[in-house]
Specification:
It contains two helices and no strands. The chain is an all-alpha fold. It has one domain. The radius of gyration is 27 Å and the shape is rod-shaped.
Length: 109
């Protein structure tokens, strides 16, 4: 094999390897971006749930102390709405954590 042929073969293989590497790097960057977005969304949902739990506590206090109710149950309309919001946030957090776990498992393969 002539020197020119060997050089063409070498550069051809190098180019293919570079294309392969860049494709993998692009996929990795996309995965990391999506994982970052999921983490931010989880934090936002946790913050929203914590805020709603605070509102729930204030509402229960208002009903028991200010309005002198003997008890408060989940059936109370104001309480039920807040509990539903918290449950919804909890379910969304679980879904996003599962998606994040899936990305991490894929990354480790």
């Amino acid at each position: 094999m002539a020197f020119i042929d060997r050089m063409q073969d070498f550069f051809g293989k190098s180019l293919d390897a570079s294309k392969d590497f860049l494709g993998k790097a692009k996929d990795k960057a996309k995965d990391l971006t999506e994982m970052g977005v999921l983490k931010v969304e989880i934090l936002q949902l946790e913050k929203m749930a914590a805020k709603t739990i605070g509102i729930l506590g204030a509402q229960v206090y208002k009903l028991l102390v200010d309005e002198d109710h003997a008890s408060v149950t989940k059936k109370n309309a104001e309480i039920k709405d807040l509990l539903d919001e918290i449950e919804s946030a909890k379910n969304k957090i679980i879904q996003k954590e599962e998606a994040l776990k899936s990305y991490k498992e894929t990354e480790n393969k």
